[in-house]
Amino acid sequence: MTDTDTDVLVRAEGLYKVFGRRTHDAVERLRNGTPREQLDGATAAVIDASFEVRRGEIFVVMGLSGSGKSTLIRMINGLHDATAGRLQINGQEITTISDKKLREIRRTSISMVFQHFALLPHRTVVDNVAYPLELQGIGQAEREARASEILDLVGLAGWGDKLPKQLSGGMQQRVGIARALAADTDILLMDEAFSALDPLIRREMQEQLVELQQKLHKTIIFITHDLNEAMFLGDRIAVMRDGRIVQIGSPEDILTDPANDYVEQFVQDVDRARVLTAANVMEKPITVVADSAGPRTALKTMRDAYSSAAYVVDRNRTLVGTIEDRDAIKLVRKGERSIASIIRKDAVTVGADDVLMDLFIPSVESKLAVAVTDADGRLVGVIPRVTLLAALGPGPGATEEITIPAQPVPTTVIDQVLEASEDGEPLAASALGYEEAR
């Protein structure tokens, strides 16, 4: 996605939020390098924050308590005025507009999901979801119909006539999400939306949010103090510390290339298997043979790569299957010129976006490095088992336990086969030390 004006829904440039006395003077002192701890009578919550949120992405702002993340989201929602800097919502500057215009933007462009649900206790579930439509002046029949559709979307079909107190915490938060979706705004703000839930329910809600996003493509700004949650949900993450944004990047960027010691310490305990993807760790495939190649060419490719097997691709680099060296040796002995008869349709493949957690079983099942293919089935990379383990940070000696299922035929044996075939004298199987039948 390009960073054109239509792609950016939220743009912040040099935002400051200072509470207390002589706030503008405090901003100037901060700009001149004064630490925020040395401001007299003023508290700097957000300092020189600049970022862009693109249409259709989940942008996560994360940090510990006191980092300024909740103040930042309240500035986006118009609940806090900026002390200095610029803030645009869908191209509209909101730091200088009238209160009436700001209320209109908040009603039509921004919805919010709160940490503690903030449901209306004496209204039914369907009436809670329909409430923003009521504020927009939509008739009762239409708003109830739309609310029922959204309840179905979040997995609460049949619960519309219940009161919030009759629902579990996870279900109440689904009502909160449904209410925000009902408003059909461009931007969805979520302030620690899942932090009040039990761990198992929290994970379920995270997964449901990802599923909803795949269907709805909303622009979501998600606030959290949980790095694993940020890594799971975020297309990009802004890490805050002491009011400042110290790094913005993809989950992979944050994990593999932390901007400073603070971020590096922050990511030490992240579950890398749920963050890194096949694309992050894959290597260029080396042992690859064209389906039009002969067995001698295939053997030479495997010999050069010290491998007992190879991937076979067609002219478009679409993965066709695999071959093994022993089968190729038999074809050379028979004088065959095509490898078509020995291609096995058993290649273990994964997608470039698959997380490492999902690669362990394919890695165990594959005789070769796991093949990474694109949406059209083209071979784009491979992941050797040792690379997979190294990406997860194995302890000392972990690689010593790695075993290779199929040992390659010794290079000297392959050389004998190739040399003999060139002389027109195929070697007997007994001379190679292999039986005819495997």
TrEMBL record:
Record-level Gene Ontology MF annotations: ATP binding
Coiled-coil portions: none
Domain CBS: residue ranges: 282-338
Keyword Iron-sulfur attached: no
Gene3D superfamilies according to UniProt: CBS-domain (3.10.580.10), P-loop containing nucleotide triphosphate hydrolases (3.40.50.300)
PROSITE patterns to which the protein is assigned, alphabetical: ABC_TRANSPORTER_1, ABC_TRANSPORTER_2, CBS
Keywords (A to Z) from UniProt: Amino-acid transport, ATP-binding, CBS domain, Nucleotide-binding, Transport
Family matches, as Pfam families: ABC_tran, CBS
ABC transporter domain segment(s): 10-267
CDD domains xref list: ABC_Pro_Gly_Betaine (cd03294)
Presence of the UniProt keyword tRNA-binding in the record: no
Protein name according to UniProt: Glycine/betaine ABC transporter ATP-binding protein
